[in-house]
Design goal:
This protein is α+β, with helices and mostly antiparallel strands and 349 residues long. It has helices at residues 2-16, 27-34, 38-48, 60-75, 80-89, 119-131, 158-169, 252-260, 284-290, 330-338, and strands at 91-94, 98-103, 139-140, 149-155, 174-182, 189-193, 196-201, 207-212, 226-235, 238-245, 304-312, 321-325. Helix 5 (80-89) crosses helix 6. The chain is globular and about 80 Å long.
Length: 349
């Protein structure tokens, strides 16, 4: 009898508050729920209580990190016309000779193994969007790494491209980068002059890194590399560096900061360890400011931005120069804010 009274109370409670019934949305829903077996009802309840999918945590900051990693992969799979429109919206400057774009994160400049869409693939489409169907394809004047954002110069014709490429080769183009780095370089301002050579790193698959050499012989494969740097702000075991590369060796800034100054760029998982491939190890206070756990640090993007290029204007011998500036990406700005690093002004030397 006591069990029957308890069951009666339970039924009465559900009848008094129908809004609390599982999946209750009216008489139709109630009838459908009543027709379910106990096993089916249990499955529905488990589905409602199912935790978030792996890689998409409830924490909004970690969710954005994961979504950004997927977005960069999707960027290479979009239709070339869509990508060309996106690059057009990001144009920073143009005249009769050049078009300057804001290169997005995760987009390679050239095609290669595993690359479905690169900037070079959409240059004919972008030229037609700007100058009509008979326009000559735009030409690359220099390159940026896939993970690097910022100022990138394109030429409207081959002669202009050759002229600007020669300016880069003769080091007449002034380049300025910003990088958020782990640690603090000593001294806070100086010059790194370390030759760079590529070497193989042992891992589960063949992999190559650019490494430092203190002294090299002239006949070696090492390339001369020189970088000027200056600390703009520091906090929470991180710093914001202004970088002026004099030379243009592949991955020069990443190698000089990681191995020359022992201050790897935030999100540089390739050069954070000398002899192995592993996600970057971050200080605890940096993780706390970013709202991340160490296991999610592998999703942090590379925080390296080409913020300014200054090149001579046209073929004139006058000292006229074109100064091209570009704001960092939103993820770069948010990281500055979370790490309490001061945001510098653009356009100043």
């Amino acid at each position: 009898m006591a069990a029957q009274r308890g069951a009666a109370r339970c039924v009465s409670r559900w009848a008094a508050r129908p809004s609390e019934r599982p999946f209750s949305r009216g008489s139709g829903a109630a009838a459908a729920a009543a027709s379910l077996t106990a096993e089916q009802l249990a499955e529905k309840i488990r589905a409602q209580r199912k935790p978030p999918l792996e890689g998409f945590p409830e924490d909004p900051i970690r969710r954005r990190v994961r979504e950004f990693a997927q977005l960069t992969q999707q960027l290479q799979r979009v239709h070339p016309n869509v990508l060309a429109k996106a690059l057009k919206r990001g144009i920073l400057y143009q005249n009769k000779e050049i078009v300057v774009i804001n290169k997005p994160y995760g987009l390679p400049v050239h095609g290669g193994p595993g690359v479905k869409t690169a900037i070079s693939d959409v240059l004919p489409i972008l030229a037609k969007m700007l100058d009509g169907m008979k326009a000559e394809p735009l030409h690359l004047c220099h390159r940026l790494d896939k993970e690097t954002t910022g100022v990138m110069v394109l030429a409207r014709d081959q002669d202009t491209a050759h002229r600007i490429q020669e300016l880069f080769r003769l080091r007449q183009v002034e380049k300025k980068y910003w990088a958020i780095c782990i640690g603090m370089p000593k001294p806070p301002e100086g010059l790194v002059d370390i030759p760079i050579v590529e070497k193989e790193v042992e891992s589960h698959q063949p992999h190559y890194k650019d490494g430092k050499m203190i002294r090299v012989r002239r006949q070696s494969d090492a390339h001369m590399a020189v970088t000027r740097y200056k600390v703009l702000s520091s906090a929470n075991s991180c710093c914001l560096l202004e970088l002026h590369p004099t030379t243009g060796v592949k991955h020069q800034l990443r190698v000089h900061l990681a191995y020359g100054l022992n201050c790897p760029i935030l999100g540089d998982h390739k050069y954070s360890h000398w002899s192995k491939l592993a996600p970057q190890k971050l200080p605890q206070n940096t993780l706390k400011r970013l709202g991340l756990e160490q296991v999610k640090a592998r999703h942090i993007p590379l925080h390296l931005h080409a913020c300014q290029l200054t090149l001579p204007e046209g073929d004139s011998n006058e000292e006229k120069k074109i100064c091209l500036v570009c704001k960092p990406s939103l993820f770069f700005i948010r990281s500055l804010q979370r790490l309490k690093l001061e945001f510098p002004e653009l356009g100043k030397k």
